[in-house]
Task: structure prediction
Amino acid sequence: MTLWTAAEAAEATGGQTVGDWTVTGVSIDTRTLQTGDLFVALKAARDGHDFVAQALEAGAGAALVSYRPENVAEDAPLLIVHDVLTALEDLGRAARARFAGKVLAITGSVGKTTTKEMGRIAFGAQMRVHAAEASYNNHWGVPLTLARMPREADLAIIEIGMNHPGEIAPLAKMARPHAAIITTVAPAHLAAFASVAEIAQEKAAIFEGLEPDGRAILPADLEVTPILRSAAPGKMTGFGCSEDADLRLTEVTLHDECTVVQLEEAGVPLVFRIGAVGRHLASNAASIIAAASALGADTDVAAQALAGWHAPQGRGSRERIVLDEVEDAALDLIDDAFNANPASVAAGLERLAAARPGPGGRRVVILGDMLELGPREAELHADLAALPAVAALDVVHTIGPRMRHLHDALAPEIRGEWFPETDDALPQLRRMLRVGDVVLVKGSKSARTSRVVDAIRDLRHRTRRAVP
Result:
């Protein structure tokens, strides 16, 4: 189905078209480009113009460029603009202007992508949903998600992130949501902000983009909740455990493979199950339920659909690693290595504390550095030792110079090994782990903790070929 015609794209961007083309999607990466996509030649680590010829050969319907590369034919289908990123933003605004459905925007220090994916499942059971891929939540991710928005969708879910002050408001105004969720506010990106209160002010800027009569959805239990409430322009729903929450979490029960949640709104209870483990997931789910009425969705249908949501890879997914098929020897891996800050580590450790190891197994965590925490990073790492969930763990291994502060603060009986770098830990994993263990791996993306996950997966039993 046509997403953009040459004439529509030219009108949206003020660009000049070469050829009369149509496209069915929008791509910024030749590795994932689909036939019929508009290839957007962004300048990032590499200049996208270097890949225009490759994109067209791979089946791109056209390319959005600021000039025609020398290796591209003069009659190749192009949209030539002054600046590619600005043109992508223009496409996003034009897509939003023609969109007849509802828009949900999500931000927060932790849980943006999780909540977005919950929304995809919860609302997808009753309407046509378009949602951002991966964590496309920055200055190019938001306009790209909007530019890809199908005309026939009923709901678009837009994830909005930030690293520095002033980033959220322009993206929220571009998305113009009918409901906007702040999942939580926590000490993340403190290298760019002086305090959690400043982070709250930046997160609250998402409400500046709300459509008239739009709904602000925010956590009711935080120290910075008054900052969030004061920024909400009109309709507001607070979710959380406090008595004054509009949507109150009255009970959360963690099981080995799921979480059972009980909510109450105006005295009416709602009980449902999430197909993954974590108290923080109950809070994310509550925010989605709070958004349902503002988006024209059925609350009960949305809640029951969440039983089909499972944590994606890198964000808390659990998998069985078979070490020896003959002896039925295995361990369980919880892959939460996509990113880390104090709030998300606390949630991950609580999830591990609720897990049941196999016979003879232990609850083991391997933690990599948390980054972008500013001058308090040593204190914030050491403070993890005092989290209640730590008392239920058997071994805490740590990696990185910042995690050395946690290593030193741990009680001797659970203090595992410390490694200066991720690569130092990899050869030791088989010795550090045993059959029956449940192993959580978590750390900031730039700390390369995901390499530990890959190495644990490589411990899987490999069937030997018979020699002929």
Q: What stands out?
A: Confidence is low (pLDDT under 50) at residues 463-468.
